Amino acid sequence: MEIFLYELVGHDVTRPFSPHCWKARMALRHKGLEYTSLPVPFTKVRHVEDGFDRTVPVLRHGKDVVQDSFAIAEYLETTYPDRPSLFGGEGGRAMARFVESWSHVHIRSFVVSAALMDIYSLLDEVDKEHFRRTREAFFGMRLEDVVNRDPARLDEFSRSLEPMRLTLKRQPFLNGKSSGFADYIVFGLFQWLRITSSVRPLAPDDSVSEWFERCLDLFDGEGRKITAA
């Protein structure tokens, strides 16, 4: 049964950049599943699957339509129990939920502050208008004023990753000896930054950078198929 994954793109439809879509991509590859990527710009998201939802990723598998990267991972885990597990049980699922919340606070906020205008520059004109209008309403300020690349901000971000570094001293992946969905949650955010922006906040020999390189190599280099900005 064919699988379709709707993914967010800018004017270059070959460069999906959404962190949530990358979580779903990596989950599909972890399960060893083939899929067809369907690129969707911002202003077309509301038309996906006849208005099924207003965010992507959305996965179509036969009659099933699933939205939200975590829900997609749970769906794949239930639908394909005999393939490699994304969570390794309920404890791993709960841990992934914690990682999702932690990374939203500490990593997503940094990527937004560093790369918002870079993301804006990747869009078609109609999507730029939509992006500026909706994001400025959300932030209550101009996009340009959201961006913060002050060295002190970079240092603060680096310090916030210390829990990851301590974990990666003991094991190669957040999930343990092998990668799991907890890794793909964090990977998606760093991949978002890698694809959209030239900002590189960590040194190559940082253990988090080394972890990210290992994740880029997973599944025949799935993450490297899209070149860095």
UniProtKB/TrEMBL annotation:
Q: Which UniProt keywords apply?
A: Transferase
Q: Where is the GST N-terminal domain?
A: 8-84
Query: What Pfam families is this protein classified in?
Result: GST_C_7, GST_N_3
Query: Its Gene Ontology molecular function terms?
Result: glutathione transferase activity; maleylacetoacetate isomerase activity
Keyword Transmembrane on entry: no
Gene Ontology BP, a term = glutathione metabolic process
Q: Which InterPro entries match?
A: Glutathione-S-Trfase_C_sf, Glutathione_S-Trfase_N, GST_UstS-like_C, Thioredoxin-like_sf
Q: Does the keyword Transferase apply?
A: yes
Record PANTHER family: MALEYLACETOACETATE ISOMERASE (PTHR42673:SF4)
Protein name in UniProt: Glutathione S-transferase family protein
